[in-house]
Write a structure and sequence with these properties.
The protein is an all-alpha fold. About 75% of the residues lie in helices and about 0% in strands. The protein is globular, with a radius of gyration of 13 Å. The relative contact order is 0.18. The mean pLDDT is about 95.
């Protein structure tokens, strides 16, 4: 998994009006698939998110948390990711997921 700076991710998400968040999700899903051999590739992830009008993204955040734990993270934050996405704070999940991925990459 690629190590990325959280502060730079926040800045890029704001400057690009959220476009970076979509690009990051696709890149992250692709890296997660290579690491765990589970889930769609980046294109499948993007198409599923679009066709389900974002409902798949809620499930994906939970599943990504489970896959990160399986990949070697110390904690399983899948339930936290699910709750945050259901209450409208799903954007925070990308930073938490990247923080976990940075732990694996270190």
């Amino acid at each position: 998994m690629k190590k990325r700076g959280i502060v730079m991710m926040i800045v890029l998400s704001i400057v690009t009006f959220g476009i970076y968040a979509v690009v990051w999700q696709c890149m992250f899903q692709n890296e997660l698939k290579k690491t765990t051999n589970e889930g769609f590739g980046w294109l499948g992830h993007l198409l599923m998110t679009m066709f389900t009008l974002g409902i798949y993204a809620i499930y994906w955040q939970f599943a990504a948390g489970k896959r990160l734990a399986k990949a070697g993270c110390k904690s399983d934050y899948a339930i936290i990711y699910l709750i945050l996405s259901l209450v409208g704070f799903g954007i925070v999940n990308m930073f938490l997921m990247q923080h976990q991925a940075n732990e694996i990459a270190a």
